[in-house]
Amino acid sequence: MLTNKEELANLAVNLRLWLEEKGKTQTDLAAASGVPQPTISNLLREKYDPSVCAVSRLAKALKKPIDDLLSPPPRRKLQKSA
What we know:
The chain has 82 residues and is mostly helical. Helices cover 61% and strands 0% of the residues. It has helices at 5-22, 26-33, 37-44, 52-62, 66-70.
């Protein structure tokens, strides 16, 4: 279980970014990871404190180190207006 609220928030943002970037759904991620879709939904809303096993399964499905999921998300460059 995550004890750090910041890591839980980072996980939610990083999962959301990945889903958006890859054009995937929560159901896609659930199928790839074996983590139930309702659990993923709760993670995205920061309503669920995942087990180490769940985070590990998500990381494996995303082909990312666990640290990447729990670290602050990368900052996106803002496009300049003309």
